[in-house]
From TrEMBL:
Swiss-Prot/TrEMBL keywords: Transferase
Source organism per UniProt: Sphingomonas koreensis
Gene3D superfamilies for this protein: 1.20.1050.10, Glutaredoxin
TM region positions: none
Lineage of producing organism: Bacteria, Pseudomonadati, Pseudomonadota, Alphaproteobacteria, Sphingomonadales
All residue ranges annotated as the GST N-terminal domain in the record: 1-96
Domain GST C-terminal: 99-224
Domain of life: Bacteria
Coiled coil (residue ranges): none
Protein name per UniProt: Glutathione S-transferase
GO MF entries: transferase activity
InterPro entries xref list: Glutathione-S-Trfase_C-like, Glutathione-S-Trfase_C_sf, Glutathione_S-Trfase, Glutathione_S-Trfase_N, Thioredoxin-like_sf
Pfam families, sorted: GST_N (PF02798)
Length: 227
């Protein structure tokens, strides 16, 4: 069920334009994917990434980023994609197991994706995209790669023999797969077949494909067109 302009239970914020390298990777993809997995209707409120945010938006998201979520049923406003995934997961056991250990495992891996893996992926993207060619980035890269490889090796050991992190597919896999996509093509995943196979399982799901297509369809061709 793709995003719809009609009123829906959840409203998610996103951008109506980003540079080409960011298309398909903006973090509103995460709650979109979760909604698609369980057929939960959602609508999008698109912001112009090339313009200053409306001042009122900082009350929803203190840094003016996306996504933020408004749950029309409860009236709750939530920011940070991990918190949003947890909120959506609470609505349906297909995304968050109801048995205590399954729930604890899924939540642990949700936090692990964003606290133990994403910081390295984010920094790697920073030095290779935004600081490419700068001396400090070249000096930082070897130690960053070494540390990232250690994290990925431990992740591969943890995933080996499992289909999904918490037994069943869950919000933990949405979190981890979207983080791993950020370093796909760097060679770091390709050197670890267990992680590549895990990522391919995740992004081959129809719900991911629907969420990705919906996000890409929302982008205007240029900042001027998004104004």
């Amino acid at each position: 069920m793709s995003a719809t302009p009609q009123p829906a239970q959840l409203e998610i914020t996103g951008f109506n334009w980003v540079p080409d390298f960011a298309k398909g990777f903006v973090r509103d993809l995460r709650p979109r994917w979760a909604c698609e997995e369980i057929g939960l209707p959602y609508s999008m409120r698109l912001l112009n990434a090339a313009a200053p945010r409306p001042e009122a938006y900082y009350k929803e998201q203190p840094w003016g980023q996306v996504p933020a979520l408004v749950d029309q049923d409860s009236g709750l406003t939530i920011f940070e994609s991990g918190a949003i995934l947890l909120h959506i997961g609470e609505k349906d056991e297909r995304l968050l197991p109801r048995d205590p250990q399954g729930r604890a495992t899924a939540i642990s891996w949700l936090f692990a994706a964003y606290n133990s893996v994403e910081p390295m992926a984010f920094e790697l993207g920073n030095i290779e995209i935004f600081a490419a060619g700068e001396q400090w980035a070249e000096l930082r890269r070897p130690s960053l790669i070494e540390f990232t490889c250690k994290r990925l090796d431990r992740l591969a050991i943890a995933i080996d023999g499992r289909e999904w992190l918490a037994g069943q597919f869950s919000i933990a896999d949405i979190a981890m797969a979207t983080v791993l996509r950020d370093i796909e093509g760097s060679g770091l995943l390709e050197e670890r077949p267990v992680l590549m196979a895990y990522l391919e399982r995740a992004i081959s799901r129809p719900a991911f494909k629907a969420a990705l297509a919906a996000q890409l369809a929302d982008f205007r061709p240029s900042p001027a067109a998004a104004a």
